[in-house]
Structures are given as C-alpha cells and as structure tokens.
Amino acid sequence: MPVIGNIFGQQISAPPTKALGSYVVPVKMGIEVEIEDFGGVVSDEVNSRWNVIPDNSLRNSGLEFVLKKPLYGDVLESAIKALDETLSSSSFSLSHRCSVHVHIDFRSTEIECVETFFMLYMLLEPALYTISSKDRYNNIYCPGLTHTTDLIKTAAIGFASNDMHRLVTSWNKYTGINLLPLASLGSIEIRTHSGTGTGSDILEWTQILNCIYAASLMLSVEDINKVSSPQELLDLVFIDELIPKLMCDNLLRYWNSSKLNLIYYNLITTVLEDNRTAEHTAGGLDNQAVTELFRRS
Questions:
Q1: Strands 187-194 and 99-105
Q2: Would you say 230 and 252 are in contact if contact means Cβ atoms under 8 Å apart?
Q3: Which one of 3, 22, 32, 170 is at 20 to 30 Å from 181 when CA atoms are compared?
Q4: How is 153-178 classified by DSSP, letter by letter?
C-alpha cells in the first residue's frame, strides 16, 4: 500500500533508523510553543533551533517558538532543553490562548498506521487532556472528540474507503487531533496541550506521543478493538515510567465514553462494509441506521 507521503505527493526522505535519547522509536516531530508577555533575551542556541515569531492571536508581546525543522531523539531533546533555559530565565505569562502543538511525521507510514493512531487517541483522550490540562477539553481551539462526533464519522468513512484526500479536506483544524496537516506536511498535529514554558513538561509530552506513534506501528485495528480495560491499553502502548501518569481518574471515569466513541466509529465502518462498496455509500451514509445501532450498543 502507498504511504502518506506518496498519497499527497510529498518528498519522503529515509526515516530515522535509531532512537536516540529518551524516546521509544525514531520519528520526527515539529513543535510550536506559545507564550504571552515575554520579557527576556532569546539565546543564540534557541535562535539556531527555533523560529521566534510574533503572534497576533496572542496578547502583550506574544510569541510562538517553532522548531525550524522536525527533529527526533536526542537532538529534539536538546532543542527542548535549550528553550527551557531561555524561558526559565525570562518573564512570560500563559492564558487559554497559549498552547503547545506537536506535529508527528507520518509521511513514511501506511494508512492503517494513521488509523490505528487515531483509534488509540480516541481511547486515550481523557488521559491526554488530564495531563495536558483539563480546561483544554472545552477550549474552542481544541475540543475533544466527544464534542465533535461528526469528525469520528468523517474519520470512519475516510479510513474505510481509503480516501485520505476526502478525509483530510473534510477535517476541522480546531480539534485536539488535527488531520489537516497530513495533506501539506505529512503530519498529524496534536493540539491538546495547554501553554507551558517548562521544558520537562514538553519533553514528557513528546515522549507520550512517541509511545502512541510506536504502538500505531505495531498494533492492528483488531488489536485495538480487543482492548478491554484502561490498564491493558496502557500496558500495550506506554513504557513503564509513563503508565502511572496516564492511569488517572479521568481515564477510568470516562473509559466507557471512550469505548462508545470507538463503537460508533466501528459501526460506521461496518455499515460501509455491509454495502456494496465504500465508495458508493460514503456520500449517503444512513445516519438514522447508524444512530439506531449505536443506541442498541
């Protein structure tokens, strides 16, 4: 099967072969860090790794620090630590407008890997928002999937029909998981994390996303559908030192809701598969039938 970069006509360089530093697998990531009220001096090392961009969506000398190119492993870790040194010696503030966005490179992966990543995100979303800030779940810039169930349907139709162009062009940027950059950059953007100027927070967040990406390479759709408990899911996806952080009250409390999102997703793909072809039915999916099946579940 073609990989994402081939589907969208992107240049694909050979993916990294060795994970360096505190990451599970080598995958390139781009990072955007937003702050407000900045008062300080940006070090030469930060200027060499990050673009420092005034951002009109922020307030009072708001800045966005954007990696100049996607990095991985110990080089990514070094860039995060350099930013931490600058921000720890500067004054700044954070508000609901600030966030940390991470782009994960999917150019060399097949569609099923993107789908399994999306499904894992659905199940893990309550824990991810707990770590990154519960307030982000209702933030207009990155609402959770339970607030945007139409996008679950959009994803199911796109993946069931292998129509990534339709999926991406139908996506809404302002969600916790943003699939739009697949078309332009070959990346999935994770927008759930609140603003922070602490390097250890950013580093931990990239390690968490790295584990989910690694699991998406190894697990199948069937593997994910068989997961029966939060503990089983965490054991499948994360290294031991991250599991206690992710095993939070919200993951347990909203586990059934996350599973219902997954059931809804699977019901739509089942309806498509039960018709003659996904291409024939994708434009006219029977919403009433899906809703009725969802209620019965």
A1: antiparallel
A2: yes
A3: 22
A4: HHHHHHHHTT-HHHHHHT--SSSSEE
With CA atoms as reference, report the closest residue to 94 among 50, 53, 60.
Answer: 60
Q: Are 177 and 188 in contact, with CB atoms under 8 Å apart?
A: yes
- E strand or H helix at 118, and its extent? helix 111-132
Q: Which residues contact 152 (CB under 8 A, 6 or more apart)?
A: 122, 145, 261, 264, 265, 268
Going by C-beta distance under 8 Å and a sequence separation of 6 or more, which residues neighbour residue 227?
123, 233, 236
Cβ 124 vs Cβ 219: under 8 Å: no
d(CA 72, CA 206): 10
pTM over 0.85: yes
Residue 255: Cβ-neighbour burial (10 angstroms; 0-12, 13-18, 19+): middle
Rounded to 5 degrees, what are φ and ψ at 138? -105, 5
pLDDT string in tens for the chain (297-residue length)? 789 999 999 998 888 888 888 899 999 999 999 999 998 899 999 999 999 998 888 888 789 999 999 999 999 999 999 999 999 999 999 988 889 999 999 999 999 999 999 999 999 999 999 987 667 777 778 888 877 778 999 999 999 888 999 999 999 998 999 999 999 999 999 999 999 999 999 999 999 999 999 999 999 999 999 999 999 999 999 999 999 999 999 999 999 999 999 999 998 888 876 664 444 444 454 555 545 544 444
Contact indicator for 145, 262 with CB cutoff of 8 Å: no
β-pairing, 177-178 vs 91-93, is unpaired
Cα 24 to Cα 40, 47, 51, 211, distances in angstroms: 34, 28, 27, 6
Burial class (CB in 10 A: 0-12, 13-18, 19+), 259: middle
